[in-house]
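User: I need a structural model of DUF4268 domain-containing protein from Aeromicrobium ginsengisoli for a docking pre-check later this week. Nothing fancy, just the predicted structure tokens so I can convert them on my end. Input:
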Amino acid sequence: MTSTPPRLGRVIHVDARAVWPHEAHDFTPWLLANVDVLNSLLGMDLVLDVAEHPVGGFSLDLKGRDEQTRQTVIVENQLEQSDHMHLGQILTYAAGTDATTIVWVATSFREPHRAAIDWLNERTDEETRFFAVEIQVIRIGDSDLAPAFKLVAQPNDWGKHVKAANAQTGEVSEREGLYWQFWDQFRSRVLVEHPTWSKSSSSTKSSWFSMSAGVKGANWVATFTGRRLAVQLSFEDPDSDLNSARFEALLTRRVELEEAFGASIQWEPREGLKSTRIAVYSDDECDVSDRAHWPDYVDWLIRQGIRLRSAVASVGGVPLASSPLPHSDQQAPVPDARIAEAEGTV
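Assistant: Understood. Predicted structure tokens for DUF4268 domain-containing protein:
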């Protein structure tokens, strides 16, 4: 008895210009609104908030930041095959914005340009990362159009970190190495157990690990601070008034939030500073040099992260602005997407 073979559709490639006729007017705004597609590909938590940013006498397509490192990210788009002019532009824009993550998007990359990105990754320091990303549009049969991003050049973050660590001496570099290893364990647990929390494919040598809260300028932060562990919801938008407004909006629901959390929460308006936050702290002292307790530290951070996220969600979620938080039975409308997100690449 023979089984009926499955019916498989055929992938049809669609000209990107047919979907986005104009790079600046169509593709750049789409990518600004759909940065999650890029995040999934790069394994990062990027926030893009500025389009057509002036750099000297030129206009950078997109500028934002990496929520993990809190450093500047730039994206240069090219709805055609890569060329020398855009290679020069990304270097000019990187210098003009002091960017540490540089993403060049094109419909295809010539081999010399891909090799140039590889060379830049090999020759620059461990903080600087260059990515070359090909954008295609596909459909299967009569399905919706979908973006198919393909990563054709990227840095070896671990290799850069090791090279930098080997070039340093002293207590600082040793402690940074411990942080890198600890947060790599934390990140690995998060990716398996709570994949919606972070897309990060890299650890960090900082004392904290940031994860996007899904709202521009707001982050969930796991951290070592003052010889204790902490989980924070940090409002750190460039607009300090917005950070204060979001903090105050949550503060109006303090009783309900702490009741949902099951304990007191630290409310930190941080007078004189730009950012504001709420936080929970461990009772016991914790030090990253105590490797034997790393599994306990990771357990605590994840457990408290679940509790605090759930408590904030119960009072309406992370405030978008200064407007009163909705009751928990209210849901924000979900905007229609222009095209469906492709899972993987072709």
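Before docking, keep this in mind: The chain has a mean pLDDT of 85.
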